[in-house]
Design goal:
By secondary structure, the chain is an alpha/beta fold. The protein has nine helices and five strands, in the order βαβααααββαααβα. The protein has a single domain, classed as 3-Layer(aba) Sandwich (Rossmann fold).
Length: 207
């Protein structure tokens, strides 16, 4: 039976690096952000719902969602972000469930669902374990600016729009801190994989 691992954490914490380590160890990866982008690019029902809530000002000249315009609006207002999430989460969950079932049918041992909102979206209910990746705020700030080519002010808005670190750590089975070396990070991932097996065996024994 496949192990379904929810991988989450705040922006800039380094989930993508952790995800890559899991992938190199043979895990199948479902990138929730890529799923969301695909849906907002091509799912007409979802696009319609977004426009109804946020107006046509969030569309580009081709009638596609302008992520930069939409992001600027929602990342500066938590209520707006919550409204967007209420619209897109059901579409994302349907697609992720389909992908998970496909990987299970293919006989994959470990399936990673990587997303900043794995917990909030309800996606965590599909998972056997939840893993949070955390890092100190300054490290995250530097990574976001470098990764996305945005200003410090924009990076700060993104950080403020997310839940505090405790929201993730208190709801997770495992926490990986990612503000040290890559070697330390890989050791932490190996530890999670080892302890995940032990946890699953314990749960099975209790059942």
């Amino acid at each position: 039976m496949a192990n379904i691992i929810g991988l989450t954490g705040q922006t800039g914490a380094g989930k993508s690096t952790v995800r890559e380590i899991f992938y190199k160890k043979g895990a199948a990866v479902i990138d929730a952000d890529s799923v969301a982008h695909g849906i907002t690019d091509s799912n007409l029902d979802c696009i319609y719902d977004i426009v109804c809530r946020f107006s046509c000002l969030v569309l580009d000249e081709k009638g596609k969602i302008n992520r930069k315009a939409l992001g600027k609006r929602v990342f500066s207002d938590k209520k707006e972000l919550e409204a967007l999430n209420r619209i897109i989460f059901p579409y994302i969950l349907d697609e992720i469930e389909h992908l998970v079932l496909s990987h299970i049918a293919a006989g994959v041992e470990n399936i990673i669902i990587d997303g900043a909102t794995v917990i909030e979206s309800g996606c965590g209910k599909m998972c056997d374990v939840l893993v949070s990746v955390v890092a100190d705020p300054e490290t995250r700030m530097t990574r976001i600016i470098k990764r996305d080519g945005i200003t410090k002010a924009d990076a700060e808005r993104r950080i403020r729009a997310q839940k505090p670190e405790e929201f993730y750590t208190e709801r997770s089975d495992f926490v990986i801190r990612n503000d040290s070396t890559e070697a330390d990070l890989e050791r932490n991932v190996n530890s999670v994989l080892k302890n995940m097996v032990l946890l699953k065996e314990k749960v099975s024994a209790e059942d």
